[in-house]
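forwarding from the other thread:

> can someone predict this with magnesium ion?

sure thing
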Amino acid sequence: NLPLVAIVGRPNVGKSTLFNRLTKSRRSIVGDEPGITRDRIYGEYEWGGRRFRLVDTGGIVPDDPELIPTEIFNQARVALQDADALILVVDVRTELASPDYDLVRMLLRGGKPVFLAVNKAEGEAMAAAAENFRQLGIREVYPVSAEHGVGIGELLDAVAEAI
Ligand code: GDP
Ligand code: MG
């Protein structure tokens, strides 16, 4: 039974890009259109001589923006039940809104290790901007670029240490 790591977060933040990079696959569809990811895609990755199972909880996100938070919450709730650790992905360029704080509160209440991956953090300024995301209340904050493979090792080290 391999430890299970779940990737959660809003549409378009780069969850599937991260999933594909870790699993060295192209199984999860990457795109700019919300709703492009199919429901819960599973893969595996190896880190530090151990294997992990990984789930991309993209979900079928409805076109109606009002419904998006509901679906993200449902996906996160399932992930909390199943996973041993959660990676919440946010886009460094996105303004935080109250649903983000609600989601974090719910994740932290689950009592499982939660890691914040501040994605698209390319370049010095972006890495600094990632610091702003500390206000979400997650202690483990990792600026990453899923697309360019930056910061991923630090994130995976922390995840592996926690589970
Ligand atoms: P998801 O909806 O959260 O699964 O997001 P996707 O993985 O489909 O990515 C959404 C968009 O963000 C795509 O156009 C990706 O190419 C882009 N993207 C993903 N990761 C990065 C990154 O690290 N840097 C930049 N600049 N773009 C990224
Ligand atoms: Mg996706």
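The longest helix spans residues 68-82. thats all i got for now
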